[in-house]
């Protein structure tokens, strides 16, 4: 039995009927060909054998999460004594002709449902019937089980050849064995003991918080860069219509080489270019609806806190976040990228001054009954006042594998990841590199994004605009180097 941390617990309480806190991935599979040249699709039994062989490296797949009576402390994860692998494996067949739009509809349906808390919080859905004999695998995992770093390890184990190298994450403590579910009395006793121990950190945390806030305030008074603050720096728009369970799904693949070309020509980071592409797409989308706020769209950007030499981790959430501007008040895309880069660099500096781990540490010691009250109060407040929003959009960026993965003998052609939109932020844009492409998995409240196909087109257009300007910058740089004195 192990206790979840404060960030995990936050996602537990944010899991509401109108906002399932489920991370979803969508893999498109190219089955191998048989002797006659026809595809040999994976059967559910094949998937079962594949997953069963990897369970020892995926500890969270056998966790049942139990809340503490009275919400005195964070939930605990227990090795489920009734674990049934078959419950977590599902299959369905698309109607002919098996288009990508029909697969997108399946993803939207699954994204609108909450996972059953009476079981470990994940499911795999094997989808048959895509054109050309292809299949898909849609995974659903509760966000409380893993953040992006842990998800990357999980998928590297799931999407691997049968004879993969065994890497055991740090969460695994000896061979797996089921545990008896603890009685309420023990849950309460352990919670009181652990909460008392955690509260000893409070004085030091208060001192660090005071120093961090003072350092950020001093920096803000001397800097000429305005960094938007959540809520006060955000003007709500249709992207913040985030109140129903229905979801929209927008998968988009862009050439990684083009993004890197823009990065090099502009002297920006790859993440800056990603934000600029998102900014250009949403700017055009909102302008077409006469709904672009006068103030720049604001963006929440998760920031990982994993050191480079950290051991493999398959479970848990350990990240901070910063708020930056998407500079949608700037018409020129090249100038917009420069402004995004400038503001985001300053936001990172202030995030470090505040303390990257400050918020996660506070969440660790705040009792869950306070967290639950805050989550429900926030949702009621947003419903009552739709003109307020924390930020307009969330964008996260992960580095993925250079080579495409396999699921058994099937090639994973495409693999999109997507996080849950929540807390009045209508679209969650999750970006990661996969082979030679950047994969944008955009999950939105259906009310906040009524035309996913249009947004897909605008993302391509936004990158094309930046590539064209990068080409001009390259010509100018080459001319300057020729004219430079020797």
Descriptive notes:
There is one protein chain. The protein is of the alpha+beta class and 486 residues long. The protein folds into two domains: 2-195, Chloramphenicol acetyltransferase-like domain (Chloramphenicol Acetyltransferase), CATH 3.30.559; 196-395 and 445-483. Helix content is 38%, strand content 20%. It is built from twelve helices and 15 strands. The chain has helices at residues 6-14, 44-52, 100-111, 148-158, 184-199, 202-222, 256-266, 270-287, 333-354, 358-365, 368-384, 452-483; strands spanning 2-3, 22-30, 63-66, 76-79, 89-93, 122-128, 135-142, 247-255, 298-304, 319-325, 393-398, 406-407, 410-418, 427-434, 437-445. The strands form three sheets. Strands 5-6-7-2-13-12 form a six-stranded mixed sheet, sandwiched between helices. Strands 8-15-14-11-9-10 form a six-stranded mixed sheet, sandwiched between helices. A hairpin with a 2-residue loop joins strand 14 (427-434) and strand 15. Helix 7 packs across helix 12. The protein starts with a strand and ends with a helix. The model has no long low-confidence stretch (mean pLDDT 93). Residues 456-483 form a coiled coil. Keywords: Acyltransferase, Coiled coil, Glycerol metabolism, Lipid biosynthesis, Lipid metabolism, Transferase. Its EC number is 2.3.1.20. It catalyses: an acyl-CoA + a 1,2-diacyl-sn-glycerol = a triacyl-sn-glycerol + CoA. Residues 4-274 form the O-acyltransferase WSD1-like N-terminal domain.
């Amino acid at each position: 039995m192990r206790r979840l941390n404060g960030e995990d617990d936050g996602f537990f309480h944010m899991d509401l009927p109108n906002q399932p806190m489920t991370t979803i991935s969508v893999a498109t599979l190219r089955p191998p060909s048989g002797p006659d040249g026809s595809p040999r699709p994976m059967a559910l039994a094949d998937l079962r054998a594949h997953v069963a062989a990897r369970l020892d490296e995926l500890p969270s797949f056998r966790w049942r999460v139990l809340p503490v009576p009275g919400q005195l402390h964070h939930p605990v994860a227990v090795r489920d004594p009734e674990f049934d692998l078959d419950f977590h494996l599902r299959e369905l067949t698309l109607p002919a002709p098996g288009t990508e739009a029909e697969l997108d509809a399946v993803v939207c349906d699954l994204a609108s449902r909450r996972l059953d808390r009476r079981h470990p919080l994940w499911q795999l859905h094997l989808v048959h019937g895509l054109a050309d004999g292809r299949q898909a695998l849609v995974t659903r995992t509760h966000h409380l089980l893993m953040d992006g770093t842990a998800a990357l390890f999980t998928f590297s184990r799931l999407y691997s050849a049968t004879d993969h190298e065994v890497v055991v994450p740090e969460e695994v403590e000896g061979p797996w064995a089921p545990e008896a579910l603890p009685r309420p009395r023990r849950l309460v006793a352990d919670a009181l003991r652990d909460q008392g121990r955690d509260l000893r950190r409070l004085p030091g945390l208060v001192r660090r918080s005071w120093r961090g806030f003072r350092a950020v305030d001093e920096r803000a008074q001397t800097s000429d860069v305005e960094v938007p603050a959540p809520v006060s720096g955000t003007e709500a728009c249709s992207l913040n219509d985030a109140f129903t369970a229905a979801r929209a799904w927008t998968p988009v693949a862009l050439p990684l080489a083009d993004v890197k070309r823009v990065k090099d020509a502009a002297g920006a980071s790859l993440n800056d270019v990603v934000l600029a592409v998102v900014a250009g797409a949403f700017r055009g989308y909102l302008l077409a609806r006469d709904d672009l706020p006068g103030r720049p769209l604001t963006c929440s950007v998760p920031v990982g806190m994993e050191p480079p030499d950290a051991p493999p981790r398959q479970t848990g959430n350990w990240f901070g976040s910063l708020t930056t501007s998407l500079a949608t008040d700037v018409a020129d895309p090249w100038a917009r990228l420069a402004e995004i880069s400038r503001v985001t660099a300053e936001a990172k500096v202030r995030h470090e001054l505040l303390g990257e781990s400050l918020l996660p540490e506070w969440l660790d010691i705040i009792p869950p009954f306070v967290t639950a009250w805050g989550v429900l109060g926030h949702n009621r407040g947003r419903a009552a006042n739709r003109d307020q929003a924390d930020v307009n959009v969330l964008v996260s960026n992960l580095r993925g594998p250079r080579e495409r993965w396999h699921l058994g003998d099937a090639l994973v052609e495409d693999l999109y990841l997507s996080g849950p939109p929540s807390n009045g932020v209508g679209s969650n844009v999750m970006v990661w590199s996969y082979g030679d492409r950047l994969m944008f998995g955009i999950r939105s409240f259906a009310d906040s994004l009524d035309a996913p196909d249009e947004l897909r087109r605008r993302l391509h257009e936004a990158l094309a605009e930046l590539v064209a300007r990068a080409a001009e910058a390259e010509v100018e740089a080459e001319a300057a180097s020729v004219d430079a004195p020797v």
